[in-house]
Amino acid sequence: MAFVKNLFDKNFIEYASYVIRDRAIPDLEDGLKPVQRRIMHTLFTIDDGRMHKVASVVGDCMKFHPHGDASIGGALVVLANKGIFIARQGNFGNMYTGDEASATRYIECCVHPIAKKFLYNPDITEYIPSYDGRNKEPVVFRAKIPVVLVGGAEGIAVGMSTKILPYNFKEVIDAEIKALRGEDFEIFPDVPTGGLIDVSNYNDGNGKIITRAKFDMSDEKRIVITELPVDTTSKDLLDSIDSAYKAGKIKISSVEDFTTDHCNIEIKLPRGVYAKDVEKALYAYTACEKSISCQMLVIKDNMPVAMTATEVIKYYAKKLTAIIKDELEFERASLTEELHARTLERIFIEERIYKKIEMMKTAESVNRAVKEGFVPFKNELVHDVSDDDVDRLLKIPIRRISLFDINKNKDQVAAINARLKEIARRLKHLTDCAVEYLDSVLEEMKNYTALDPKKDPRAVDPKLMERQTTITSFSAVNAKEIVKRDIPLRYDDKGYLGTSVSAGKELIKVTPYDRILIVRKSGIWSVCDVPDKLFVDTGMWFCNYADKDVIGKILFTIIYRDPKTKFCFIKRCRIAGWIMNRDYSFVPDGMEVLHVDSRDKFKFTMRFVKKPRIKISEQEYKASSYEEKGLKANGVRLESREVESVSVEPSDNNGQGTLF
Questions:
Q1: What are the counts of helices (DSSP H) followed by strands (DSSP E) for the chain?
Q2: What is the helix, strand, coil percentage profile of the chain, to 5?
Q3: Contacts of residue 352, Cβ cutoff 8 Å, sequence gap at least 6
Q4: Which residues sit opposite 189 in a β-bridge?
Q5: If pLDDT is split at 50, 70 and 90, which confidence band does 2 have?
Q6: Which end of the chain is more exposed for a tag (fewer CB within 10 A), N or C?
Q7: Do 515 and 618 fall into the same domain?
Q8: pLDDT score of 484
Q9: Within the chain, what is the greatest distance between any pair of CA atoms?
Q10: Euclidean distance between CA atoms 655 and 557, whole angstroms
């Protein structure tokens, strides 16, 4: 058994780790999940400036992603609809209506140039073998902007989940620039579908937001929904409105959906109903308002970590300078080698070192002759001549030697030296370089937003550069606060209580959210939600709203009798608290309840069992003469005489809910 347990534990841990790191949670470094990273890597690999069938891209991606084509196709569509990663052509669905994309064989895509600018740099990216060892794929891309915020993410893993709302592209870049300059910044989510959000409990990405649709109520007889709440489509909204209407929670005449590339849902109201009367009901009972919990969970250093939006921005600001430094140092190393090659080539041809190899008989002697030929010019070289340098020089064709242009070579060397000086300067001012880079990204994005999407698939939606979601302050509408108590609660002669009881006495008006306190004839009391139809037996003593502020003020008086001795007892107590749907008893087990009352003051008469030589057969009592006790205490014995019956003076208001 121990072996089996260890086997299950090991397999579960491996599975959980795989789901967390390789499927559901995005990596902080590039903000992408593995399938998204492999899609982008595929697009970078096949990029030739033209469009590719999505089905073809999916097929190529399967070289790197060991899963089905449907999951890759779906992930590609989601990634394309974020607007900055993939240029698209064809029907990729509609984020407003929720309509799905066309089949992958009908739509086309290619990598967007802006994504290539901030995501792709193979010279400083680490690659590993793909799952089958035939290809190479990146461990992570070295992203220069917080992709995890720009694109947003959602995923459910084993024991954890992530929900990162998307942010406005321009606001993210501006925040990163401020972080580089050491300035304070504040950033909140923004979605292309607009809507209103309250971020008072957002907690920088690890709290919750309340989001609402935006209404146009300029005409008091209709409501036009012009913007959708976050994470909602017009279909979701229509379904929720239809459900609320059928349940009788909102009063509307008709609903028409004219949504295309923007939200336009028209709600017409019946006679006598106005927009201001329906507004709160729409927020309370439909998807026009909802609360979204957020958790900014990412993979950092191969481990799941919860971060804030501010921390992500600052992390990327620091990371950007490191990336730019690596790029500059790589370029400097490449240019240094290029300068070395140009210098060797000039000296090799200009000083006719190639003439010294004409009489050599072996490769070793040729190699030695070339190296010896460079000895007088050692001070002009960048570094010592290597065997690779010799091989490269020996491969120069005769035609190139005869047509060698010394002036052109000098110009090339001068350009390389100028660039090396610029690199040295930029390495001393990395922060300024990072700000300059981010400004160039914003400028390039503006150019793409100016393109016509019908003519150029690289066109970017201008909404990515302008805030669409309005940040405001409001409280969630509580359905319990706006619902009217208009449902009759009835109790019939058979002992049934509920809103579905067709015949019987109407006790009170209730709502579906009410709770009621019931006292049965046995003295057992309980609190429950308003029932449709519940058997509580005949002779129920009490039924009213189970509001703690109301019930706590009621002083219950219980008169009960011991069946064995026929002695009567009185108990006065209050109900301070309860557990839902749990039975409690006012009296000890086996006692017979004769009366329950909710009045503070009333009179009652006890009739005693008739006995010889005892003239007093009844006696009147005042309930107020007896002290209040605890709910679990026993009652006070009224008389040491056997009681036959008890009668109580009637109440004008029926005992505040008491049934006699």
A1: 18, 32
A2: 40, 20, 40
A3: none
A4: 167
A5: low
A6: N
A7: yes
A8: 77
A9: 157
A10: 11
Residues 349 and 442 grouped into a single domain: yes
Where residue 655 falls among pLDDT bands split at 50, 70, 90? Answer: very low
Question: What's phi and psi for 626, nearest 5 deg?
Answer: -110, 140
The reply to whether 350 and 244 lie within a common domain is: no
* pLDDT tens track for 336-367: 888 888 887 787 777 777 777 777 778 888 77
Could you give the CA distance from residue 634 to residue 523 in angstroms, rounded to a whole number? 13
Model pLDDT, residue 9: 54
State the catalytic residues.
106
Instruction: Pinpoint the alpha helices (H) of 351-428.
Output: 363-373, 387-394, 398-402, 406-427
> Residue 279's domain spans which residues?
196-293
Angle value at C-alpha 54, between 53 and 59, nearest 5 degrees: 100
Spatial distance between the Cα atoms of 74 and 65, rounded to a whole number of angstroms: 13
pLDDT at 615: 79
Q: Is the dihedral of CA 429, 435, 438, 442 positive or negative?
A: negative
What is the CA 476 to chain-centroid distance, rounded?
Answer: 18
Establish if 172 belongs to a structural domain: no
Whether the predicted pLDDT of 478 surpasses 50: yes
* Cα torsion angle, 654, 655, 656, 660, sign: negative
Please determine, for residue 657, whether its predicted confidence score (pLDDT) is greater than 80: no
Q: How many domains does the chain have?
A: 4
What dihedral angle (degrees, nearest 10) is formed by the CA atoms of 268, 274, 280, 285? -40
d(CA 543, CA 522): 14
Let me know whether 332 and 421 are in one domain.
yes
pTM: 0.78
Structure tokens at 49: 């400036």
Q: Tokens 């590719």 — which residue?
A: 52
Report whether 642 contacts 602 (CB < 8 A): no
Q: CA–CA separation, 320 vs 265, rounded Å? A: 44
